[in-house]
Amino acid sequence: MTRQQLEQQERDSFLDWRRDLAHLAEDSSLLLTPFERNIQLWRQLWRVLERSHLVVQIVDARNPLNFRSEDLEAYVKEIGDDTTGDDVTVPGKGKRRSLLLINKADLLTYEQRSVWADYFEEHGITYAFFSAADAAALLEQAEKQRRREEGLDDEDDDDDEDEDDEPEHDDEELDEEDDEEIEEDVEEEEDKQADEVAKQLEETKLNNEPVEVEDIRTRVLTVTELEDLFISAAPPLSDFATARDPNPSKLMIGLVGYPNVGKSSTINALIGSKKVSVSATPGKTKHFQTLVLSDEITLCDCPGLVFPQFANTQADMICDGVLPIDQMREYSAPVELVCKRIPRAILEGTYGIRIDVKDIEDGGTGKVGWEDLLSAYAIARGMTRASFGMPDTSRASRYVLKDYVNAKLLYARAPPGIDDEEYMSTSRELTLAKLEAEYANGRKRAPETHVSKNADTYVAPAASAARGGDEFDDEFEIKARLPTVRATKANAASAPSRTGKERAAALENAFFTESGPAPRPVVKGRSQGAAVETESGGTGGAGFSRSTMYPHQRRLGPDGRPLLEPVVGTNQRNNNKKHFKEKKGKQRSGRGYD
């Protein structure tokens, strides 16, 4: 078969497959989620599977079943030529094996990994837990320690180069000094992160996992252990012998899966250096590539493919990191999923904000909605639109969703048959304890409004907001601060849209309750009419024998202070050089009527 014939056959089969999917979606009235329609990327997958002896399907530990493709595992067993002899181009039909590699396993607790281990063993799935981030951090820490012991510090080399090559201008010197300071800060942060990862791994092994014989079912494997697992899980290479290569000696490991599950990061952790480009945007790898891991193993990195599904929605795929966040057009549904999955206490503690939730009595649900979260986040971060100063919820949604994908807001799915709330209870307790410790150490909260303190619309925060981070989940504290937050939203230019009834009620509450003791003006002077004793011991006018709308009568405002005379007066003129005599009406002398 020639190359043109093979490509034509692949194109025809691909079009038939897409046509069958479309008919299935129409007949079953199911929603077909977005999937990869470019045949060139599917050809990359086919070539990787044909080359590989062991196909490693990498999934995200937060939702393994959503990233696992059972059809791919079935297709791996079908790859190969039926014929035998010298014409075999793809040997080993039915001999290839599959391995489910659960990446980002450091986000799960020991109990959560145990639950998933029981599920995989019950269904006969070969699996392994791994964390590319932890492996890369430990390798980097070991490399830095080795360089320190050998005296090969990068700082000394940079200093020597700076002494030899003196810059000509002072500006260049300042720029290089700033760059060096930034590099030093980055290195210090990387060292701290690597130390923290090492400590966390040691504490996990000592506290959570059994001290007896290490259980391979739930342990997060190291790089060396993962290499040994590849060799033990792979089929015998003699099953792939051909006339051209009667004695194959190199094991080919194919890494496949969805975008943004960590295929390239896993390869970099295995090799020990950055050989593959890594990006937070899904779909960074465009073409498959082979990398030599050792004399016996070769890795083959496949571009990430989005497989067609019928169960999940597009919002789920955005939250899972499959679809690019920066290219989404509708953000309310994904953020609403985040609000349902992450408790209010963790949202407020993570961002240091106060989320105003509409109660059931006011026509709301009593729970955090996407608009409540994004408005509070945008106000705290100063994200406003160009028109009317409203919160930029579209921009805020991208930050929140990226934090969710990067596990800053942690949520993991439980296996079928287990309640998600019970599954996440221990993880949430650890998160709340960590947040309480941060606020106890002096972490500050974000402002509730970007209105300046000297502005007329500024409202001081409630006393409950300054108690500290250890009580942000207290129901009494939330109820106590609601009037202040509502008044702030009613007065500030950054207030989100509300109904007319709510705006009127909030304005009344802010004016009459928070601004002063009296809801009406009080007049001082000799012509007060009936005098009534006030709380301060003086007298205040309760009734008047004449009109009170004259400038010579001093009146008090709602705050108890006398109003300025120019404001009270009815005869107000502009202070400019032009003078126009006031028009007077007709005046009659009254003569002739005596």
Automatic annotation (TrEMBL):
It comes from the Eukaryota. Residues 575-594 have a biased composition (Basic residues). Residues 194-206 have a biased composition (Basic and acidic residues). Gene3D superfamilies: P-loop containing nucleotide triphosphate hydrolases. One of its GO terms (molecular function) is GTPase activity. CDD domains: HSR1_MMR1. The keyword Nucleotide-binding applies. One of its GO terms (cellular component) is cytosol. Keywords: Cytoplasm, GTP-binding, Hydrolase, Nucleotide-binding. Residues 253-308 form the G domain. The keyword Nucleotide-binding applies. GO terms for biological process: ribosomal subunit export from nucleus. Residues 144-206, 513-594 are annotated as: Disordered. Residues 151-193 have a biased composition (Acidic residues). InterPro entries: GNL1-like, GTP-bd, P-loop_NTPase. It holds the Pfam family MMR_HSR1. This is G domain-containing protein. It comes from Vanrija humicola. The lineage of its organism: Eukaryota, Fungi, Dikarya, Basidiomycota, Agaricomycotina.
